Amino acid sequence: MKNNLEKLVTAYRNEIDLGLKYLRIPGEPSGLYKPMVYSATAPGKRIRPLLAFLTGEGLGVDHDRLRPAALAVEVLHAFTLVHDDIMDNDTRRRGLETVHVKWDTNTAILSGDGLMALAFRLLMETDADRIRQMGFEFSQAMLEICEGQALDVEFESRLDVTAMDYLDMVGKKTGRLLGLSCQLGALISDADESVAENLNRFGIELGQAFQIQDDLLEITSDTRNMGKSLDSDITSGKKTYPLILVLGGLSMSEKRSFLEFMKINLDNRKAILDVFQQKDIFTKTSDKITQLMNNALKRLDQLPLMATENLQYLVDMISKRQR
To answer: N- to C-terminal Cα distance for the chain?
Structure first.
């Protein structure tokens, strides 16, 4: 079963890559459409369309009916990355220059808007009785993603951010799009509302685990492995889960001193790692990732066997990623 799913996931990733390559995007004006193609076709893990495919098929939907929604969530994801990179002033994404660096900020804003519009157009091509509800959930998810991004920015200037604050933020910023991907697969299958919402919660918890895992890799990996800038989080004061654990037991003055220590040691990552290791932060962070993934998996108990096996495989795949 595992080998079959591995082959299936590889085939679906290739299918998504091909679908993104041949999106109906005009050539002119090139200042809008060239950056859109650049962003949409950038290399990626394609987790969100995989969730849509594997959820929907596990609930009995024909594969071809799921394709527009699967492409839509990946294009929507590309949009969020373009604007996120502007706000975080990141220079690398998916191993490539970010759009605002390769072109300019105005181009990045406009092409991001274009990607959002394209994502909605793709979604509306879906053959589904509940397409109106799908459109509502798509819009609602986009709004919650914006809420999460706003909180992320707000947290940069705060020293009192708690682990619960963080989980709420990434549940919106990262988890909601994973939840939407599962939700759309369920709605196309005409599943009960309770099933669709449970799958949304599954995706949110998986997204929380995914983002904490990303935070951990940001600290322990290098630019070559992660494919994007590593120092911008420290420079901007972004509150990642491991950092929140470190700051949790410190006074306000100690928190400020530690954040300054990290900025001073941008080129000496070992000095930063030593502090995290002394406080056993990596173990605590890994334990939280495992807890969230287990919580997500428990939500699959009431699904048909095929859906459960499909999503369990994807969770296992995500848990083992190194970039």
So the answer is: 25
Q: CA–CA separation, 254 vs 283, rounded Å?
A: 23
182 CB-near residues (< 8 Å, 6+ apart): 51, 52, 55, 199, 200, 202, 203, 311
Return all residues near 224 (Cβ < 8 A) that are at least 6 apart. Answer: none
Name the residue with tokens 């939280």. Answer: 288
pTM recorded for the entire structure: 0.94
Q: Is 103 helix (H, G, I), strand (E, B) or coil?
A: coil
- Could you say which of 1.10.3720.10, 3.20.20.70, 1.10.600.10, 1.50.10.10 is the CATH number of the domain covering 2-319? 1.10.600.10
Domain residues of the chain, as ranges? 2-319
Digit-coded pLDDT (tens) for 41-75:
999 999 999 999 999 999 999 999 999 999 999 99
Question: Angle between the 305-319 and 281-298 helix axes, to the nearest 10 degrees?
Answer: 170
- Residue with more model confidence, 30 or 232: 30
Contact 187, 195 (CB under 8 A): no
- What gap in Å lies between CA 296 and CA 92, rounded to an integer? 31
Per-residue pLDDT tens digits for 152-163: 999 999 999 999
What three-state secondary structure class fits 158? coil
Gap between the Cα atoms of 185 and 183, Å rounded:
5
